[in-house]
Fold Cytochrome P450 4V2-like protein.
Amino acid sequence: NGKKSKPLAKELHVFTIIVVENRRKQLLKEREEEVVKDIREEVDTFTFAGHDTTGSAVTWTLFEIGHNDRVQRKIHQEVDDIFGEDRTSPITNEELKKLHYLEWIWKKTVIQFLEEQIFGSLSLECK
């Protein structure tokens, strides 16, 4: 009988809407949690990779400076010229910007380091 089934169908339809809506909310929440987790993992990867690369580059630069007496003397002279004999006063950003030779050594060494990291691994892949 159509008269009896219409109210039942309507009730069933309301029930299915509730079930679908609850499931939709659950999926959205799970997806949101998954997206947040994915973003966090990506940020961690870039952050720690950056620290590793920077740490390695600093280590390599210090190693290279340590093996070159002429470079050490030039850096020492530049530091003496800029900061003078007073080693107790705070260092300013303006003073750091004047360390042109040290900056040049840093950039040159980092470029060499990165080239080795990139092209060294490429040459291994080509073998």
In short: The first helix runs from residue 2 to 66. The two ends are 79 Å apart (CA to CA). Residues 68-127 form one domain. The chain is about 90% helix and 0% strand.
